[in-house]
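Entry for the shared binder. Reason: the reviewer on the internal report wants the predicted structure included alongside the sequence.
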Amino acid sequence: MPQSTKLGLVLSGGGAKGAYQVGVLRYLAEQNIQPDAVSGASIGSLNGSVLASAGNVQSAAETLEQVWHEIAEHSPLKMDSLSFLSFVLRIAMAAFGGPAGRMAAVSTQHLAHILPEKYHKYVGDPVFFDNSPSIDILNRYAGLNSKNSGLPFWVSVYESDGAMKDLLAFLKGSLGISESKNSSFIFLNHLPEDEKRKALLASSAIPLAYEAQIIGGKKYYDGGLGGVNAVQGNTPITPLIEHEKCTHIIVTHLQDGSFWDRNSYPDTTILEIRPRGIGRKGLRDMLSFERGTILQWMEQGYEDAKASIEPVADGLAAFSNSLESQRKLDDAATQMADALQWLKK
């Protein structure tokens, strides 16, 4: 029996630069390159949810283009005024209230044990942005209520030790002082609707910017925080290799300078797509949801995907043909088994 072949697609994180992945998917759709499984981190998990629920890259590319045109018209960055005010009040109590004020400011965190989860952001780690725009997009486009349908889909999340500790670990990792602990991966397909939503919101929840999500009694933040030096969490290839047994994987990065090393996976055929022409403004690139910038990223994703895939187009065509042949053989084997079962009756 020939070895089974399977194509995976990794969608890395990078905030507003996620528009780049729309262009990549548009090119894949034109070439009829269909992934068999998907993984995503941060904004890549939100894009991936649309692709996974659509089930095919053509439909997903059209839907994501619509989503990102919406985002270009209405920025998803919405200040959470009440949460910010709560944080300011706690700081004021600690600074000007003396020992009693400091005790009161610290003790508010214990209220999280008795208050409903939706109020935790007012008494726990500070939160500056409202995630309701992301929730609205997920509810309308991510197919959260579908059960066991679409492509196998994994998202990267980071188990929190507290917002400030998480950010400090990430900073140390980014500076090469130490490595942050690894991110975890959650398989979404079998989860209930609410749990899917929480996992996707957690995967893109930058500490202090957005509130952590509680899943299975644990708090989770942005999957890109984990394994910073090796970019383990922000480029979640591991579940596609270990769980989905993908033999070929397309990895889309959202920064050209990513230190992720394809040579760490010698038994997997990997094609990387990296931004080449725009976006050298660091954090500003991640937060720039202006229409002109988003359209630039979309076009750049298309051009970079074309430049990366065209040189290996013949190989991908052969791979696609082998997948189709394998599917036909599987169908034929199933039909033969059914026929034999009928004959026995």
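Summary line for the report: DSSP finds twelve helices and eight strands in the chain.
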